[in-house]
Every structure is written in structure tokens, then in C-alpha cells.
Amino acid sequence: MSTPQTAIIPDTITAAIYIEANVLDKEQTKAACCQALAALDDCRSRFPGHELGMTIAFGADFWHSLGHANEGREIRPFVPLGNGLCPTTQCDLMIHIQSRHFGLNYLLAEQVNAAFGSSIRIENETHGFRMPEERGLDGFVDGTENPHGEEKIAAVATIAQDRPDAGGSYIVLQKYLHDLKKWGGISVAEQEQAVGRSKADNIEFARADRLPDSHLGRTNIKENGVGLKIVRRSLPFGYISGEHGLQFIAYCATLHNIDEQLKFMFGDKDGKIDLLLKHMSTAVRSAYYYAPSVERLADL
User: Fold this and answer.
1) Which of 12, 52, 141, 145 has the fewest Cβ atoms surrounding its Cβ within 10 A?
2) Are strands 169-178 and 53-58 parallel, antiparallel or unpaired?
3) What is the pLDDT of residues 246-260, one digit of tens each?
4) Catalytic residues
5) CA distance linking residue 170 with residue 74, whole number of Å
């Protein structure tokens, strides 16, 4: 049995660190993955009970250079969407560390960074945090559409055990900046119409009552009667006096589900653009990654 990496399944985390980097030394990077897994095991044994997990994933060009042709076959570089609304910032490597203790995330990230050392060049590092009631900075509950229960999460987020790349997962990592002053300048009713659910009590609007360009109208989509599900592990990030928004990350057993949702959001399907992009959010980073199973990561 192939084991999914440990930041994919747990859904009660409260803090995360997201790192993107480009590879400068392939062989050293491959060796560093084993060292990073050892650091994770050490931190988990020393500080149990915090659901510490980590995912190390790879961009298409680097993954293909490793020669595992039958694994992660869907992975490709991110391409811009929405006529420039969604740029690509594709990197070779992604590290996602999460737990219920920010300091523990930081401790592990220090050790992982030391393991990779000069073999990579970090291009972006973002620290996320859980807000009360699991709300985003926009005031709405986030992640409501996620599946619940380990088996259901694994079924959506990871590749089935009968596949050569069992336990693997496709990932989108995006950074959205929020203009909260602009968002606060529209009424709560307009905000609710933009999202597709009520703000205070988090009740989803009936499909017939949703605007077609609401966030739910853009992302709660079906194909041949089947919902295109993904598993979100996103968190708010930022500073009161500086940039702030949402660090979006989602896992899926197929890149197709992620890609279709983004095409609907940014208008590449039918010209309708997600109202959150009109009223609040700007995408500044976007990339696709493939996370192999723990066993494959340890044996690159």
C-alpha cells in the first residue's frame, strides 16, 4: 500500500507554511527529500498530538526530469488564465507544512530548509493561520465544500491504490491578495450574492437562487452529473499593515477537477468571471505540483 504525504488528509490544522522554490542541484535535492522526511518523523515523535504534516511536491518539468513516466502523468506547468487575471508563477518544488501549532511548523521548516540548503532557491514563503470559526478574511466560512472523514478525503485527494502512482496527489497552489476596503464597501447582501451562501450562518443558497458568476456558481460544478470535488487546505495569511489574503491550496486525485474549477472562475469556459475577483480578490501566484507517495518520495 502506498501512503499519501502527511499534509493531505488531516483537516483540523490551524497554521501552515507554504514554500515554493526552484531547483539548482537535482541530486542534492533528491537526497534532501529523505532528510526532510527524517526531520518530519523526528518532530512528530518529539511533539505528538499536533497533527504535524508535510507535503513535498514537484512542478512538471522537474518531475519529468526524474524519469518516473508512469507516475503523475497528468502534471503539467500552470498556464495563465482569464487574459492575465491569473498569472503563472510555476516553480520546481513546493513544501507545505501544517499543524495545530505554528511554532512547530516553523521548527520543522527550519530543518527542512537546512536539508535542502543551496540545492534550491526559495521564490516564495507564506505563513497561514486559522481565523475563528474557520472564516476567511472576507468574513465567510471557508472550506465548507470539503469532504469529511479520512476515507472520503483520501478518495478525493489521492490517487487510487490500483494505480502505479497510488497515494500521489495533484496540487494547485495560489496566492490571492484581498482588497478588504473594497469588499467592505459593498453590502452584506451583495457579498452573499458574490459568494453564494449566507455570511452569518453559512447556509448555501439553492442552485436556482445563485448568481451564475457567484463563487459557488463558478466552483460547485458537475460533469456528467458528478461533482468535481477537490480537498482544500487553504488558510488566510498576511499583515494588518501590509498584504493579506488567502493562500489557496487544493489536493486532488486528478488535475482535471482543479483545472476545470479554475477555468470557470477566470472565465475561460463561458466568459463569466467569479464575482470574488471583481469585488475583492486578485490572483498573484499560481502553480501546479505533483506530490508522490511517501514511499516514492523516500526513493526518488
Assistant:
1) 12
2) unpaired
3) 999 999 999 999 999
4) 142
5) 8
